[in-house]
Write a structure and sequence with these properties.
The chain is α+β, with helices and mostly antiparallel strands.
């Protein structure tokens, strides 16, 4: 730890003079920025003037720079009450810092209710790392103003003791002033904070990858097959009108697959939601031997999720040749054998997939549950494809696991990092091909798990129907098992900020068998400490999802997680994130189409699209899309996203 200088009590500076002395002792630069006075004697919120550290205290508010030429010396999280609940966000951030053993100071910035959270660093931090931390934290803390942490040249914040323009001073409410003088936080601890934020659901923007070949995304963000809509088969029409089987999910899946093959859109299917008996599975949920209705928005989300799976399935499996695939059974058996070996190995080490550890160094060596969830999703894709290699889209992973795309991206990196230097097969998965244009990176299992020969890239969701057999039965069992396990945590009530948290989701999943289990059993299966498991179980019981018995704990299936999400005001979080991804996909596809058109010779753009023109990625030299928005000579991606959000692109973006 590096002392900064100065001797001050570990309390709030009692007055502005003491606050100025603290600033002089810890400031990374020789000057501070000062607020501009207004004609009426008050001060504006513009810090456009400067004062020397060696001089007297400014007459009004001042802000201290956070960085010097070497990098950031302090992290100052500015939580603005005008943006959100600053007190709550400060409490959440403080809790995360405590989990990483990062000493910090929380100050009430003034009478407006804002909060400042301070971290002093023992060595300069790179602006790129600090900006990434700001972006990650900002995705979880609505009140965070990231400006001080995104510009090392001008980023500054009022330190403890500095006056506020509306009266009062920045007063410490948690922590000790000496924390800012001693600078105890290391860069390794910041990396720990970064990892924790990612696991908490933080998100940053990443490049887009493609959908399955032959598919399109409509203006509502829903996938569909390219082509003209036609009447479904007589069998599907009969299913739409008849009462569903006892297993309503089976009937709904068959109907959605048939409608997808008939080139229907989601909005067409949505019109049947409240009229067709075949869609009973989306409209209701099981309660004992009966089924009870769910809210309309919940029914729509359930139908949307099943529709996406059906379209990906059909796009990856054209009907022609299904019964002629003589190698399918062998591939299915090889894929399930490899996944079985992988899952048994991963399940045998539940303690590997958690943050618990005796030291920070030990925690860095351990895996994270986000990695386990991504590994489980990859297992699902491999079994569905019956191929040893799958193409992976981080947004698809985010949808299937409930984690953010950044957590999924870093999980892929960790899972493909060898544990033995120079031996790629010592990793869990092996990178086969990097992302290429519209296609995502492809992966296979390590050779210690895989039993099949390598083949070329196949879509991550390619599924192949087959006649009943031992291989097909095993494959179906694994698909159901892995899908159920992923769906247990990919819910708003566990994935959203301010929700029960993924630890609670993992704990509830261990109770899914319906038997009474002790906290120690839950901890062992969920990869948690016993204390953490008890806290999660109590939280689940408080919201009606679990029940305590003399011999342990059990789940309460009669309490739907969606109802708890509504009570916590976090319902719709994953749906909103999917909408954000849809807009990003649209912008990316629009820009790629624009680049393709710009590179053509003798090109001519249509002035007005016709009713039967080609889709966005058509090979036509006269593309059916408007000119990409620009700010001067540069593409304006923000405006493009806004236009897509407003429905400017009425045509679909089609994968190349």
């Amino acid at each position: 730890m590096t002392p900064i200088g100065g001797e001050f009590p570990a309390t709030v500076p009692p007055d502005v003079g003491a606050g100025w002395e603290l600033t002089r002792a810890i400031s990374p630069r020789d000057t501070v920025r000062t607020a501009v006075p207004e004609a009426d004697g008050h001060y504006s919120n513009e810090y456009a003037t400067a004062a020397a550290i060696a001089g007297p205290a400014p007459t009004g508010p001042w802000a201290m720079y956070l960085a010097d030429p070497a990098g950031y010396r302090f992290l100052g999280f500015d939580l603005d009450a005008k943006r959100g609940n600053a007190g709550r966000d400060a409490g959440r951030l403080s809790l995360w810092l405590d989990e990483c053993s990062i000493e910090h100071v929380v100050a009430a910035s003034g009478p407006s209710g804002g909060r400042h959270v301070w971290i002093a660093l023992d060595e300069p931090a790179a602006p790129t790392l600090v900006r990434e931390l700001a972006d990650l934290a900002g995705s979880l803390l609505p009140s965070l103003d990231k400006t001080p942490l995104t510009n090392p040249a001008t980023g500054c914040l009022r330190p403890p003791g500095a006056p506020h323009r509306d009266g009062g001073i920045s007063a410490v409410v948690r922590g000790r002033i000496e924390t800012l003088q001693v600078a105890p936080t290391t860069l390794d601890e910041l990396e720990q904070l970064r990892a924790l934020l990612v696991d908490a659901g933080a998100d940053v923007e990443t490049p887009l990858t493609s959908i399955v070949r032959g598919m399109a995304i409509d203006v509502d963000g829903q996938p569909h097959l390219i082509g003209q809509r036609r009447e479904p088969s007589a069998r599907i029409r009969a299913l739409l009108a008849a009462a569903p089987d006892a297993d309503t999910s089976t009937t709904q899946a068959a109907v959605l697959v048939g409608l997808a093959r008939a080139r229907w859109r989601f909005r067409d299917v949505l019109e049947l939601l409240h009229t067709s008996p075949a869609l009973e599975h989306s409209r209701t949920r099981a309660r004992g031997a009966a089924r009870v209705p769910v809210a309309a928005d919940v029914a729509r989300r359930r139908l949307s999720a099943d529709w996406r799976r059906a379209v990906y399935y059909v796009a990856s499996n054209p009907v022609a040749g299904d019964t002629l695939d003589e190698d399918f059974q062998a591939r299915a058996s090889a894929a399930t054998d490899a996944v079985r070996a992988l899952e048994e190995r991963a399940d045998s080490m539940p303690g590997l997939w958690g943050l618990d550890g005796p030291s920070q160094a030990a925690r860095r060596r351990r895996g994270r549950y986000s990695q386990r969830a991504v590994l489980r999703a990859l297992s699902l894709y491999l079994v569905q494809a019956a191929r040893p290699i799958v193409e992976v889209d981080v947004r698809r992973l985010a949808q299937d696991t409930g984690y953010g795309r950044e957590a999924c991206r870093t999980a892929l990196l960790a899972l493909s990092t060898p544990t033995v230097p120079g031996d790629p097969e010592s990793a869990w998965i092996v990178l086969v091909d990097h992302a290429d244009g519209p296609h995502g990176a492809t992966y296979r299992l390590s050779a210690r798990f895989s039993t099949a020969a390598e083949e070329r890239k196949w879509s991550q969701v390619a599924t192949r129907p087959a006649a009943p057999s031992a291989g097909a039965d095993s494959r179906s069992w694994w698909i159901r098992k892995l899908t159920t396990e992923l769906q247990s945590i990919a819910q708003d009530v566990f994935a959203a900020p301010h929700s029960l948290g993924r630890t609670a989701g993992r704990s509830l999943h261990t109770l899914a068998s319906g038997t009474v289990r002790t906290a120690a059993d839950v901890a062992a299966d969920a990869g948690l400490s016993v204390d953490a498991a008890r806290r999660s179980l109590r939280r689940l019981a408080q919201h009606g999802l679990a029940e305590r018995h003399p011999g342990g704990w059990s789940s309460r299936p009669e309490t739907p997680p969606d109802a708890v999400a509504i009570a916590l005001e976090v319902d719709g979080y994953l749906e909103a994130r999917a909408e954000r991804y849809r807009i990003e996909r649209g912008a990316w596809g629009w820009w790629q189409a624009e680049v393709t058109w710009l590179r053509r010779r003798d090109k001519r753009r249509r002035k007005r699209p016709g009713a039967t023109t080609a889709t966005l990625f058509s090979a036509s030299t006269a593309p059916d899309f408007p000119r990409y928005p620009r700010a001067g000579n540069q593409p304006d991606h923000a405006l493009a996203r806004a236009l897509i959000r407003a429905g400017a692109l009425e045509r679909s973006s089609v994968a190349a």
